[in-house]
Amino acid sequence: MSITLQKIKQTQPNLLGVLKKKAAQLATGLALLTLGVWLEWRLGDGTLSYYLHPRFNLLIGFTGLIVGGLGVWLLLPKSRYVTPENSPLKAFSGITLVALVALFGLIVLPRPLDGTRAALVSGTGANSGGSSNRALAAALLKQDWNNAASLDTVSWNLLDWSAALNDPQRAEKLIDHPFDVTGFVILPVTTSSRNFLVARYVVVCCTADANALRVPVVSEKAQEVEAGQWVRVRGTLGRGSNGIVSFLANSVEIVARPANPYINP
Prior knowledge:
Strand order of the largest sheet: 2-3-4-6-5
Distance between the termini: 78 Å
Shape: elongated
CATH architecture of the largest domain: Beta Barrel
Order of helices and strands: HHHHHEHHHEEEEE
Number of helices: 8
Structural class: alpha+beta
Helix content: 40-55%
Strand content: 15-25%
Number of domains: 2
CATH class of the largest domain: Mainly Beta
């Protein structure tokens, strides 16, 4: 009898340890599955572009499948539980924390960068930054300045315009050239009845390196727009009353935010 009781006492700690390990396995599996689902979900609804350049979509898709598949494997009732010495759980302990953050991401709706950050920086063109400077240089290489009159400026976005307007001599050659750009509104710090900035972010890798491109607009409809609104602005390049090279708009149309609100060179 005493031998039996002793065996039971020895078995109880072992059973408790096994249950703890199994619970840890299930928790890790659920966390990894959540991370995989979150990645595939954001990839499917297009909001992944709020965080990363679309060039990473294929990589993120494969990552989501692998991580989610590993989570499913850990959740299977017949999956073989192995000891911590040769278990993948030890290696993936750090991923568990990331997956729990992803669970929070399932609750919080994704939002792209808005005009709040861009409005904090004065001036026009692009905020300083290595990635945006490379994007501006690349855009400039696509423009044929040997014959400025033949430039198809109507097809240019704010990245193309910012690259061209960074140099006063190039800007002068573009006077009276037509434009058709889409971006969000930044209202000037000083009250103006005819001026605002049209802006858009350029994202080369991810939103951590995002930089705002801004070009001044002169329009009779400036008082009808609100900060953060998306607008399509059309007209010709010229000079405002202050002598600054600006978009002289003959049309300001309020539009919906694009599916991808960034410029991704």
